[in-house]
Amino acid sequence: MTPRPDDPPRPAGDLDWSQWRRPRPTPARQRHDWWLALAVAAGSVVMTALVSSMGVHPAGSGPALAEQYAWGVAVSAPLALRRRYPLIVPLVVGVVFLAGQARHVGDNLIPSIALFIALYSAGAWAENRTAARRVRIGVIVVMFGWLGFGLVRFTITPSPAFERAAGPLDPVLASVLYGIVFNLMFFLSAYFFGGMAWLSARRRAELAHWGEQLRLSQEQNTRGAIVAERVRIARDLHDVVAHHVSVMGVQAGAARRVLDRDPDLARSALQTVEETARTAIGELRGLLGVLRAEPDEEPEQEGGETSSPGLAQLPELAAMARSTGLDVDHGVFGDPRPVPAAVALSAYRIVQESLTNVVKHAGARRADVRVRFLETTLEVEVADDGRGRSGAPERGGFGLVGMRERVAVHGGRLEAGPRRGGGYRVRAWFPV
Predict the structure, then answer these.
(1) Range 311-432: architecture per CATH
(2) Is the pTM of this model over 0.85?
(3) Which intervals of the chain are annotated as region Disordered (predicted)?
């Protein structure tokens, strides 16, 4: 795809910046070139008038004043297109420059400036770098050839009458060396600064490209962080609400069925519903405290507590599941030791979600909750004797998905599936 003049530079697909091409000049830059050409032409007219008025014509006699004005305008006019046709302009300017020299035009300063600008523009704006290098070198070689021709002619003609010189060199030799050194510096400067201008433009394009890439990366990271935070909030809300609502639903259903026959049992079930609701509200407030806290602050819960549920609360979780009529056995194996709070919270949530699924889906009579402190890992397991689908989420549910996400955060592993002897097992390992 060819970029428009006002398009930003487009690097190659593999970001090979050595193949970068400078975009074409904008209309504003082209207008600046027209003003530059006009200024150089005006300078040429002024300098030609001054040289002719001083009567110090280098060649003794030159063309008419009007012709000299025309040569000055002719060598300046191509600069109006110097950025649009950077390889053609130095060739045209070089030819006009030599033709004016052959005609013994009086002013050499402004034509030299025009030639300098043309060579600089070829190095700074030509898209084809090989062609730019060849054109500039070719023009410089021709100019030095013309200089050599002039120096040879200067040396073989009768020497002009020099005033007594105080320097150590012969006046003719000094004049030749001066001409060579001056022109060498002149042309090498045009070549060097043109190349530096192109390289500077390429580096600006690289910076703009990588700045845009950085901005896109930051936007992508921000979107990823927002999505990850939404997933975390959804997972925590699911884990906090689903278990307690399931227990409340089971107890409320039991109370409804025995309300007329056994008011005491119904009252006990409703009391469990009330306690479970309070627990759910407390955990929701704690979750909201975490979400509202600053990154470096400890979220405070009611009563000044700052702890989240962990392994120490698993007996309470088992007791709550027992209140639904499920026989829950809780056991701890190995040497108990402190584990990171985040790991403890994830283990608690996995047991909570597993027991919730047992109550809601398994139709089980018994469930075993096992916590094992192994050498380098913490293992939690929930197994039941139900229909073998206690760990499977409902259609559109997020139970197992949330468990796998929690384990993955800590670099752990999760296994969930039917047991060989019947029932369902959820087992998670956390590296500690």
Answers:
(1) 2-Layer Sandwich (3.30)
(2) no
(3) 1-26
One-letter identity of residue 172: V
Q: How many helices (H) and strands (E) does the chain have?
A: 10, 5
- Residue 369 CA neighbour count, 13 Å, CB half: 26
Q: Which of 199, 114, 113, 183 is nearest to 149 (CA)?
A: 183
Pairing, β 413-418 against β 424-431? antiparallel
Chain centre to alpha carbon of residue 276: 49
- Rounded distance between C-alpha atoms, residue 387 and residue 108, angstroms: 102
Beta bridge partners, 332, equal 371
The candidate with the shortest Cα–Cα distance to 82, out of 45, 35, 43, 46, is 35
Tell me which H or E stretch contains 318: helix 314-322
Q: Which two tokens stand for residue 287?
A: 């979750």
Chain centroid to CA 359: how far?
A: 49
Strands 327-334 and 366-373, how do they pair?
parallel
Amino acid type, 28: A
409 by Cβ neighbours in 10 Å (0-12 / 13-18 / 19+) ranks as middle
Q: What is the pLDDT of residues 79-122, one digit of tens each?
A: 999 999 999 999 999 999 999 888 888 888 899 999 999 999 99
70: phi then psi, degrees, rounded to nearest 5: -65, -40
User: How large is the angle between the packed helices 171-258 and 129-156, nearest 10 degrees?
Assistant: 170
Kindly tell me the sign of the dihedral angle through the C-alpha atoms of 286, 316, 248, 367.
Answer: positive
Domain boundaries in the chain?
Answer: 20-158+169-218, 311-432
**DSSP strand E in 201-326: where?**
none
